[in-house]
Amino acid sequence: MHPDPATQAPLSAQGDRHFDGLADKFADGLYGASRGALRLALLDRLLPEMLELDGQPLLDVGGGLGQLADWFAARDHAVTLAEPSAEMLARARETLADRDVTLLQDPLQALPERAPGPWSLIACHAVLEWLGDPRSALATLAGLLAPGGQLSLMVFNRDALRFSNAVKGNLDKALADRLEGKGLGQRLTPISPLTHAQVSAWSAECGLVVREVAGIRVFHDYLRQPPATADDLERLLELEWRYCRTEPHWRLGRYLLYTLEHAHPPREPRR
User: Fold this and answer.
1) β-bridge pairing 145-156 and 208-216
2) Closest by CA position to 197, among listed 245, 251, 154, 233
3) Which of 97, 108, 203, 254 has the fewest C-beta atoms under 10 angstroms from its C-beta?
4) DSSP letter string over 211-268?
5) Half-sphere exposure of residue 95, counting CA atoms within 13 Å on the CB side?
6) Does the residue 44 lie in any domain?
7) What is the pLDDT of residues 246-256, one digit of tens each?
8) Distance of alpha carbon 192 from alpha carbon 135, whole angstroms
9) Structure confidence at residue 3 (pLDDT)
10) Within-domain flag for 267
């Protein structure tokens, strides 16, 4: 008899969300739908503008199914992908079968020992919101980053989640600010959605500054009807692209995408 997934212990010893058993949910429910296609299309445009890319080695933290690692590997970056879920890592191995990518089955907290770097480029997309202590996780990432290096960070936006609940009529939930998921079964509401204010404050605590910021899916998640045709999706992509870095629109993106750097990288020596 298979155990009921809703009754299993959903969180790790660190209070982080488990993802074994959810690879199909991610592949079909996210990347098999318009929201996943839109997210990847926006990243394809945003990453070259928000990062200085010159083929430097990349640490992909919580790399999931491997789409982001594939994007960087296709652009001649030597990629190390770290992912704690054996099932997700197996899917990533399939995605990256034709790429020269190093795969590690490790959580973020183990990386100071398993992949200490320092790294000139780190990507950590849609990971912190699934951790019990995202604040200390960001400090860990800062410790892995080389002076002058870049951290591409994407987090699930708590303010957008509140707005979405209000649009759906969940007014009591929005008023109580009761927005966190419980990490049960197949539900994919993050246990630690974050605000821009939190990211900014925690970055400053560990010596990082926000160099760039954008909103991912500013409009898509509030549509009454999802895009029905490829033309609809293309028009929506252009709308998202036009306003994803514009005040006040980016602040309501379902995800917030950042480029973070150390506040005071060492100066070039005088000649």
Assistant:
1) unpaired
2) 251
3) 97
4) EEEEEESSSGGG-SS---SHHHHHHHHHHHHHHTTSTTGGGG-SEEEEEEEESSPPPP
5) 24
6) yes
7) 999 999 999 99
8) 10
9) 37
10) no
DSSP H or E segment with residue 81: strand 79-82
Q: How many CA atoms lie within 13 A of 29 on its CB side?
A: 9
Residue in 155, 105, 151, 115 with CA at minimum distance from that of residue 131: 155
Asked, for residue 269, whether it belongs to a domain, the answer is no
Closest to 92 measured CA to CA, from 129, 60, 57 = 60
Give domain status of residue 97, yes or no.
yes
Q: pLDDT digit string (tens) for 7-44? A: 344 555 567 877 777 776 666 556 657 888 899 999 99
CA dihedral 219, 222, 223, 229 (to 10 degrees): 60
151, 142 in Cβ contact below 8 A? yes
Rounded CA separation 171/179 (Å): 11
Q: Considering its fold, how many domains does the chain have in total?
A: 1
Give the pLDDT confidence score for residue 15 in this predicted structure.
77
User: Cα separation of 21 and 88, whole Å?
Assistant: 9
How many residues can be counted in the chain?
271
Rounding to the nearest 10 degrees, give the CA dihedral for residues 71, 40, 126, 197. Answer: 120
Tell me if the pTM is above 0.85. Answer: yes
| Domain enclosing residue 156, as ranges | 5-262
Give the CATH number for residue 40: 3.40.50.150
Give, in degrees to the nearest 5, the angle at Cα 111 between 26 and 155.
45
Closest CA to 258 of 188, 207, 208: 208
